[in-house]
Amino acid sequence: MTRIALIRHGSTAWNKEGKMQGSTDIPLDNEGLEQARKLGVRLSDESWDIIYTSHLSRAKKTGEIIAASLGIEDIREDQRIMEVSGGQTEGTNEAERIAKWGTGWRQLELGMETEQAVVTRGMAFLDDLMHEHAGKHIVIVSHGSFIRYLLKKLAPGLMQDANLKNTSVTRFTVNDDVWECELYNCTAHLV
């Protein structure tokens, strides 16, 4: 059995401002650093073997803080688990997008990465991961929209009624290519 924890990075200033981050490299803010520390303490009660992070600093730093709590030195970056590219919308909030492109801005060609492209790179990453680390317990620190798109593919029956919270844990067990979600969008470490 392989166990995989999908973690959304800690909070950033742009999260609080409602700005689209996408592939823009925005660092964790002080709250995000504290969220990552709390998550590291929480995960230290469990057994984890390896950590993969996006190369973007908000995910990478979250992963490094978790790794320090877990005593894991094997941290690997993979660009395939970076956030969905927002194209021209990066750095804008909803009101700015509506003012600039109208309420139908999501239907416009603004250089945003498609869901299919995200799922294709995400599933290629997971296929490689399962081939290389079958039977391991793996932490993946990534981004909200990226994880949400993957969840639609991995757990199509999962009700995703809320945005993924910063440092939330969504955990799967994988047996014979069957992905079972045992925990979704959990932030018990923040209460």
From TrEMBL:
<feature type="binding site">
    <location>
        <position position="58"/>
    </location>
    <ligand>
        <name>substrate</name>
    </ligand>
</feature>
<feature type="active site" description="Tele-phosphohistidine intermediate">
    <location>
        <position position="9"/>
    </location>
</feature>
<dbReference type="InterPro" id="IPR029033">
    <property type="entry name" value="His_PPase_superfam"/>
</dbReference>
<dbReference type="Pfam" id="PF00300">
    <property type="entry name" value="His_Phos_1"/>
</dbReference>
<protein>
    <submittedName>
        <fullName>Histidine phosphatase family protein</fullName>
    </submittedName>
</protein>
<feature type="active site" description="Proton donor/acceptor">
    <location>
        <position position="83"/>
    </location>
</feature>
<dbReference type="GO" id="GO:0043456">
    <property type="term" value="P:regulation of pentose-phosphate shunt"/>
</dbReference>
<dbReference type="GO" id="GO:0005829">
    <property type="term" value="C:cytosol"/>
</dbReference>
<dbReference type="InterPro" id="IPR051695">
    <property type="entry name" value="Phosphoglycerate_Mutase"/>
</dbReference>
<dbReference type="GO" id="GO:0004331">
    <property type="term" value="F:fructose-2,6-bisphosphate 2-phosphatase activity"/>
</dbReference>
<keyword id="KW-0378">Hydrolase</keyword>
<dbReference type="InterPro" id="IPR013078">
    <property type="entry name" value="His_Pase_superF_clade-1"/>
</dbReference>
<feature type="binding site">
    <location>
        <begin position="8"/>
        <end position="15"/>
    </location>
    <ligand>
        <name>substrate</name>
    </ligand>
</feature>
<dbReference type="GO" id="GO:0045820">
    <property type="term" value="P:negative regulation of glycolytic process"/>
</dbReference>
